[in-house]
Specification:
The chain is an alpha/beta fold. It contains 10 helices and 12 strands. 39% of the residues lie in helices and 20% in strands. A 6-stranded mixed sheet has the order 2-1-3-5-6-4. A 6-stranded parallel sheet has the order 9-8-7-10-11-12, sandwiched between helices. Helix 4 crosses helix 5 and helix 9 packs across helix 10. It is globular. The chain starts with a strand and ends with a helix. It binds NADP nicotinamide-adenine-dinucleotide phosphate. The site of NADP nicotinamide-adenine-dinucleotide phosphate (NAP) has 26 residues, from helix 5 and helix 9.
């Protein structure tokens, strides 16, 4: 039996074990995917243990996506540029790192027919997830990208790195009527009392709001609803990042629909 794992802190709410184990079963692969709660102080020992025990693949989630890179033998170009790894493949005692958050996000944009090429995009949030989003938008040749964040200095630093334009939250209302796509790459909406971090203004009817958060009703969902714009939660990104990881490990692309059905049950 081949062994796979996900490490995070905390980890008990992760959907990935349900999804990956269902795909292994569906593809008739003798494998098991196990969640491990790993404190950052134990990350090095954990990485060594996976090698010693002959694990074949690992997913890393919050807070390990950047710290794990220290123990990886080789990372692909996207993971290096984004600065985080969420998928590791182990072969002959060596660890290879990938970032499937960005590719899963790109896959989901394509699946939802959200046009990015040449479009005007506003990204809110400047943490780890925003880095993958910016990389994907650049790859997809977005026409114009504005980046904003609660802490403007963080947005300014990240904007410089990815050659996009940083804007303060006070400038967002003037941009809203003109943007084609608004992406919430922040944790705004994870807490019940979170409010929209900028003043609301009407969006184009054809605009889309893409929220990386997948299990909450966020202020970004309300923003889309009030303008009659399309709204997409991060469920598709979550499933697609897992599918890309599965493909890296097994060479097979799994059935997205199986995961979508499971996700509905998981989050009910
Ligand atoms: P992170 O590195 O901790 O960054 C958090 C970001 O959210 C920062 O920009 C922070 O702003 C901002 N923020 C936090 N609370 C806020 C609030 N109440 N109002 C406005 N801004 C707030 O986290 P991350 O890894 O980037 O993840 C961001 C979100 O994306 C999380 O909710 C995560 O669950 C989600 N995510 C989803 C997927 C998926 O597959 N769907 C994948 C990855 C991440 P400051 O700089 O001002 O602190």
């Amino acid at each position: 039996m081949k062994l796979y794992a996900i490490i995070g802190y905390p980890i008990k709410h992760s959907f990935s074990p349900l999804m990956q184990n269902a795909w292994f079963k569906e593809e008739d692969i003798d494998a098991l995917y196990i969640p491990f709660e790993v404190h950052h102080s134990n990350l090095k020992k954990t990485a060594e243990a996976f090698k010693t025990l002959g694990f074949c693949g690992i997913n890393a989630t919050i807070p390990h996506k950047t710290a794990i890179m220290k123990y990886i033998d080789s990372c692909d170009k996207a993971a290096k540029t984004i600065g985080s790894v969420n998928t590791i493949s182990l072969k002959n005692g060596k660890m290879y790192g990938f970032n499937t958050d960005y590719s899963g996000f790109s896959d989901d944009l394509a699946a939802k027919k959200i046009k990015v090429r040449g479009g005007k995009v506003l990204v809110f949030g400047a943490g780890g997830a925003a880095r993958g989003v910016l990389y994907a938008l650049k790859q997809a040749k977005a026409g114009k990208i504005w980046l904003s964040n609660r802490t403007i200095e963080t947005a300014e630093k990240l904007a410089k790195e990815f050659a996009v334009k940083a804007v303060g939250t006070d400038r967002i209302p003037a941009l809203l009527p003109d943007v084609d796509l608004i992406i919430n790459a922040s944790a705004c909406g994870m807490k019940k009392d979170d409010v929209l971090p900028f003043e609301q203004a009407p969006l184009k009817k054809s605009a889309a709001v893409y929220d990386l958060i997948y299990n909450k009703k966020t202020p970004f969902a309300a923003l889309a609803r009030k303008s009659g714009a399309k709204y997409f939660s991060g469920e598709g990104m979550l499933i697609n990042q897992g599918a890309r990881a599965f493909e890296i490990w097994t060479g097979k692309y799994p059935d997205i629909k199986t995961a979508a059905t499971l996700f509905r049950r998981f989050s009910a």
